[in-house]
Amino acid sequence: MADSINAMMARTRDLELVIRHVLAGLGHGIHAGRERGAGVEFSEYRAYAPGDEWRRVDWKLLARADRYFVREAERDSHVAVWLWLDATASMAEPSRNDGMTGVDKLWFARTALACVAAIAQRQGDAFGLVVCSGGKVEFTQAARGPRQLQRVLEQLNRAQPDGALPTAQVLKANLHFARAPGLIFAASDFLDWPSPLSEALLRLRNLRHDVRLLTLRTRAEMDASFAFGSGYRDPEQGQGLYRFTKADRAGYQQQSRAHFDLVATSCRQHNIVQHEACIEQPLPDVLRRWLNLARAR
Amino acid sequence: MLSSAYPWWWLALPVLLLPVWWHRQKRQRPTAEPLATARFLPAAAPEQIRVWRWRDRTLLLVRCLLLVALIAWLAATIFPWRGHTVLVDAGADPAWVAQQVAAAGMTDAQRLPLPPDALHWLRAHEGDWRDDARLLIVARAGHIGMTARAPQFSHPVELRVQPAPAIAATVVAVNALARYPVVLAASPERSGAWRALFAAFDRAGSGTQRRTVATAPSAGTELIVWDTPGEAPPAQWHAPHWWIGAGATLPATGKSATLKVDDITLQYVDSARGRLWTSDAFPPRDAGTARALYEAWRLLDAAPAPAYPAPSHTFAAARPAAMEDQTAQPGQSARWMALALLALFLLERILTHARRH
Questions:
Q1: What are the chain A neighbours of B37 within 8 Å (beta carbons)?
Q2: Dihedral through CA A129, CA A202, CA A212, CA B39, nearest 10?
C-alpha cells in the first residue's frame, strides 16, 4: 500500500503539489545555517555597537526600551546547491510492478531533485540545475528565491529521457560552476560507471564539493524478475538484442551486483555519499534517508 | 482479345501470385522491449520472423493489374516469328516433295504439315510470318481448293501441286456414288469390327462413298487391311495403302513417320507394295475411335477432293487494303493495352515512391 504513494504522486505533473506533500513530513534542511547577519529570517536582537548600519536599528524597540537594538537575521547561506539530473534514455526504465503505472526512474529522480530544490529555497540557498540529456548538458545558473524554484521546476518537468550521456569534453566545458564550493545532488541510474558523468563527479569531489549521489534502480532489476522469453534491447546502445531466460537470471544478478558494488566502492574511496534506492520505495522515505546519510557522515 | 492467336500467354497468369506473395510476407524483428539493464544480459542473435499481413493493398492491386495488362498486351500482340516455310502435304510422295523443295531453293526452310483448307488458313495466320519470309506449299493434286478470287498474300507464296497419279482416280464428281474396293484380311474375331467400321464409313460424310469389302485385291483396290497376326500377306498383293493390325509385320523400305490427327496417332512407312499404316486405333474399339479414325483418314487421303482444285501457282506478295482492315482489330486492342500498361506502370512507380517517403 505504501508503494502506491509513488504511483499516486506520479499522476500529477504539478511538482509543487508533490513537494508540499513530501516535505510535510520532512522538517529538516540540507545543512544548518548557523551564521547570523543581515537576512530575511529574524534571529535575535543584539545591542547596538558603533559602526552598525542605521537601517538595521529597530526603532520600535528604541521607543519601548529607550535603547538601541539591532535586528539580527539568519544570514543567507553562501553554499550553492547543484541539482544534477540524468535524463538519458535508460532513465525511462519504468517500474514493472503492478500498481506502479507512471513511475519510472526519471520521474523519481526529477521529483527527488525538485524536493531538494524546494528545501534549498526554504533555507535561502542558491540552487542551480544541470540536466544531462541526449549527449548535451542543459545548465541553469544558481540563484535564490521562489522565482528560481519555478524556473528549476519548469526545467525538471521539461526533461525527457533521450539519448546517451554527454561526452567528457561537453561535461568539462560545463563545469565552470566548480569554482565556488557547493553541494551537488546527482540522481541517476549510474549504469555507466566509470563514465564521463562519474569522472566529472569525482573531479568535483576532488575540488572539495560535497557530492551526494542517488542511485536509482527498480524492483525488477534487483530481483531479476523480468518476463522470460522476450527480447530486450539497450535503449542507449545500438541495435543489439538481448535475451533473458531462466538460466540467465543468476548471471544477470551477479553482473548487476558486481556493477553496483563497483559504484559503491568507488564512492566510498572518494568520500562521496551514495544512496541506492528503489523507485518503488516511498519517495519521502528515500529522500529522508538520502539527506540523513550526509548528516551522519 | 481472348480470341487472339496467342492465348497461351494467358497461361502466365500465375505470375500474379508473385506480387501477392511479396505483399504478404514481411520480415520483421521480434519486438524488443527496452530495458535499461539489458547490458547485464547475454546478447542474443538477431532473429527475424516472417509475418503474414496484407500491406499496401492499393499498390498490390495496381501491380496485379499491371501484370494482367502486360499479359493481355502480349496475348493481343502478334510478333511475326516464322521465316521461310514449306507447307508439306503429308500424303504427298516424299521424293517428289524433296525434289520440289530443292527446286524452290528452300531446303533449309522450316516444314509445317499442310492444314486443311490451306489457302484460307494461310490468310488467317499470315501475321505469323516475318516480312521477308517466303512460303512454299507442296501438295497432291486435288487437295487444295481454288478460291473464287485469287487470294492475295503479303508474302510470296508458291503453290506446287503434284500431278495426279495415273492409277488413282481420286478426282470424283460431286454427288456421284464412288466405289472404293477394300480388301479385308483379318482374323475372324476382328473381322467383325473392321466390317462395322467400313459400314460406318459408308454412312459417314455425305454418303456418296461405298466401300466394297473383298478378300483379294484387284487393280482398283485402294486399301488392304491386313490384321492376321503372325502371317505375311501374299507376295503379289499391291495397293496404295495398307492398314496393318497389331502383330503383323511387312518389310518396309522407307523411313517411318508419325502423324497425329486429332486423337489418332498414325505411323506410316513406305514399302515396295504400297504405304503401310499402323496405329494403336486398329481396329477401332468404339464409336468414338471409329469416328476419329474416319476424320483422320478423310483429312489425310480419302478426303473428297474440292470441286475446283487449284493448280500450281505463284502468288506475288501484295499488301491489299482488305488485309489491313482485317488485322486492324487486334492491332487496335494491343495499342490500347499498351497505353493502359504505360499508365499502370506510371501509377505503380508513383505509388511506390509515395510509399517510401
A1: 93, 191, 221, 252, 256
A2: 90
Note whether B44 contacts A251, CB cutoff 8 Å.
no
Label residue A76 left, alpha or beta by phi (over 0 means left) and psi (-120 to 50 means alpha).
beta
pLDDT per position as a tens digit, B26-46: 766 667 788 888 888 888 777
Q: Look at residues A126, A121, A108 and name the one whose alpha carbon lies nearest to residue A287.
A: A108
Provide, as residue numbers in chain A, all residues whose Cβ is less than 8 Å from the Cβ of B48. none
Across the interface, which of B32, B37, B40 has its CB nearest the CB of A231? B32
Which residues on B lie below 8 Å from A255 (Cβ)? 40
pLDDT, one tens digit per residue, over B62-121 is 999 999 999 988 887 777 778 888 988 877 778 888 888 898 888 888 888 888 778 888
Diameter over CA atoms, chain B? 108
Q: What angle do CA A118, A122, A128 make, to 5 degrees?
A: 50
State the nearest Cα–Cα gap between B26 and chain A, in angstroms: 19
β partners of residue A210: A183
Q: Answer yes or no: do A241 and B40 touch at CB < 8 A.
A: no
Dist CA A264 CA A257 (whole Å): 10
| H or E element, residue B160 | strand B157-162
Instruction: Judge whether B161 and B139 are in contact, CB under 8 Å.
Output: yes
Chain B contact set for A240 (CB, 8 A): 38, 43
Question: Does the global pTM surpass 0.80?
Answer: no
CA distance B85 to B129: 9
